[in-house]
Design goal:
62% of the residues lie in helices and 0% in strands. It has helices at residues 18-46, 53-73. It has one domain. The chain is mostly helical. The chain is elongated, with a radius of gyration of 18 Å. Keywords: Membrane, Transmembrane, Transmembrane helix, Transport.
């Protein structure tokens, strides 16, 4: 299958508008919530940690945020920068 340059919306060095970037960022955040919260709910429920699940969700979101920050900013040898 042949791909034309016209198939791409943005090239490697292109910058989307603030509106387009905001929609993409919101979509990314909402999709990541599913991957972070769902396993916490399932594992916490199976282990009978009902009253601790909100705390576990908060900690999962916090660790995910710290990991994202390290990956984006490059701390020492960690992350891409």
């Amino acid at each position: 299958m042949e791909h034309d340059k016209e198939d791409l919306i943005y090239g490697l060095d292109d910058k989307p508008s603030a509106k387009s970037a905001s929609y993409a960022a919101l979509q990314h955040v909402l999709a990541s919530f599913v991957g972070i919260i769902t396993p916490t709910l399932i594992i916490g429920g199976v282990l009978g940690l009902g009253e601790h699940i909100p705390y576990l969700i908060s900690m999962a979101l916090m660790v995910s945020g710290v990991g994202t920050f390290i990956q984006a900013k490059r701390i020492g040898q960690l992350g891409r920068g």
